[in-house]
């Protein structure tokens, strides 16, 4: 699995936790094109989108249950052993559980609510904890940084919407974690950022048409394009520590907010 | 246990989840004085502070592990059976676990982090869920309300501080839940509010001196007085639905914020 | 003009700047009923609503252009001379100019934009400045306070809506002022608060029917009742300094936010 | 004055309002290097920093009092006539008046307070109004945008600090304006953004040493580097409309927030 792309190494190693075809895939492609070694961790690392990324861009695939402390610790151990300490870690797990999403509180199953929090927020805690442990033992780069940790979030991380109490809990918990870590780790040289996406995410499929997960429209701009989101992640990673951004919410021009 | 105070009934029933000597005890005393039937649920309902409340104010004591769905469901079943559906429910559980509080992320134990979230935030989900189920089946009162659900929160529910990632997660999760429920339940006639206390809480002991939990000072105003906090809870409960407040942060005059 | 109500004096003096039939009139009535001397300042103090308040509740009426430094200074001079230093000052001027409100930026007249800011926000600066000057020379009351300054605000003070750039500027400016003064003056014993009303305000007319300014509905709860708003102002004024609230947004139960 | 740099034109025209040696100069240099025609408007366009930018980068200099409607209208007329409609407009005027900054409310001169608001916020209204008028008559570029309007702001635009009530008003007013315009203009194809800088700004002088305005330290990273800030402005301008950022706060790694 530990395949590296050709011109990698000098630009560091990126680890993307979450293996979907949207933001994760866009980040993997962009970071690889920019010369970084790229590893992607997913619950199911054998799905087609990841295999294609391996074939086309030399992405390394890893299995991980990000809501398990042991699994996350093992993931970082393998990635560090294979590619060195990652200096860019992206936590891109949404965590929502379909059977509870958009349910009223009286209809929301408590076990699924807890699972939502474990998937979406607790996994961010575990990933950030391992990332910090390894980054703190590393060197400062030429921008004065020991590394970058980016959390993807939803608008539910900023505003709690009705009929999604459990998802609001998970997303807000992630916001609280990101803020706490930004204040704790920035003075230690680790750039912590969160990017709330205030829209459904869309992406290009192999045939050029646009895929999306949850919306009825297509071929227009009411979805947040995952390739564009990846561009912001790269920009954040490259910021000089004199001017670090913590939070950048992204939304389509036609979004009502 | 199902003891009622004398002039209770016409003013409804209050259920306070969390049995500490600060906000919970102040609320219990004030609500009882105002003529409400008051029930307090605590992990350890036999502690002195609660027994004294029972003796002095007729408070009913209940055992409950608020992070357990089954335990919370049973609690509401008993309270409703004993005193009718509560029309004021206060979730006043802090949830912090001493062995992880103020620890850096690299030193924070993952199991304790999850426990912090379960104690502080998941319990709020469980309590609000049962409260909603029962309140929705009730009547509108003369202020157009089916009931009030109030969450005590900490300033960590608004701002994530360093060295307390897990606590920031729990408190922010509670904020997200409260916002989601406010938007979901207010149009159904349930007033949802959260009160972040931006300070340590102080209270009067039996001998009139001021007790506190975590700060080195005493006899001055840099602690939020729990009796004063209870006054705001009562005011929120009595608001007409034409002008409901969702969030009221309280802090001492000398607090730096 | 300097008429005082009968049981006033021991409860202090309230000065309400802005003389409309909604919040200002409700505050005047409530504060007078609670035993305070009440003065109301308005651009046109001879309008019927204020004359009626004078007749029914002994409210003292004053003329003032609150956007003029000189006029505000004279107002406070007269009020202090007539009734002593006010320990509760309410700034209740909306400031919106009809000919610019709800206009797109390209259609918004710059002079009216500046007028909106002067009316709504600069007047708050002038009023707060004089209030502070006088309060700081006064005594601490039994709640440890030298006085309370409350700013009414609109939801535009928290969120900038389209087609109302000038109003968003004025309301946000007021929020910035209120925050700055809260942090500056609370440690000196002056309670500063702002109350954003997230709805149109409704009030009862003499015949008991409900009046309103801008909405097409009536006889229901989608307006914020001005009498209820006044209750919150009184509660804020009476808070002990150990637990001061800075911001309390009020909205009807059916409001979308 | 209407000198253009060599490879300009295809990348559009940028107009920077405010002519200081920090963010404005950094933006002018960066935008010119990227192939844009760059115009800078200042109250005193003959100062050395701007003449040097003209000589080195072909920047066009314009005189403008940005707090005067007439002057701003004339500025846009000239710039459009000389270089075409600008598709990137930066409002970079701080507006603070030294004689009132850091003064307590009781010591703050009301005339200077109003001047602070006129300089910092009303000028933003005037500039945005003219920018919108011209941009709306233009074409969509290949990113689906009619143009970008960026407001520099201070942390006082997000949080009101003590002893700076007038500055808090001006900065918050700018935030309110920016939010209102973002919601009004984004659906029309104009990207509106604000960038609060949560620190003093530092910049490189001609001899390579770092200059700054207000802080006692030097040669380290506790100032926000103006060249880095300009990079974010360029990134914002280049965002695809599917993923526009509205607000990006920038702060040094060691900043306490």
Provide a descriptive summary of the structure in words.
Helices cover 38% and strands 20% of the residues of chain A. Chain A has 257 residues and is of the alpha/beta class. Chain A has a seven-stranded parallel beta sheet, with helices on both faces. A three-stranded mixed beta sheet of chain A has the order 8-7-9. Chain A is globular. Residues 1-9 and 213-219 of chain A have low confidence and may be disordered.
Order of helices and strands of chain A: EHEHEHEHEHEEEEHE
Average pLDDT score of chain A: 91
> How many helices of chain A does DSSP assign?
6
Largest sheet of chain A: 7 strands, parallel
> What's the shape of chain A?
globular
Residues in β-strands, percent of chain A: 15-25%
Strand order in the sheet with the most strands of chain A? 3-2-1-4-5-6-10
Judged by helices, strands and strand pairing, the structural class of chain A is alpha/beta
- Helix share of residues of chain A? 25-40%
Largest interface: A-B, 48 and 48 residues
Estimated radius of gyration of chain A: 17 Å
Strand tally of chain A: 10
Low-pLDDT runs of chain A:
1-9, 213-219
Distance between the termini of chain A: 43 Å
The quaternary organization reads as: homotetramer
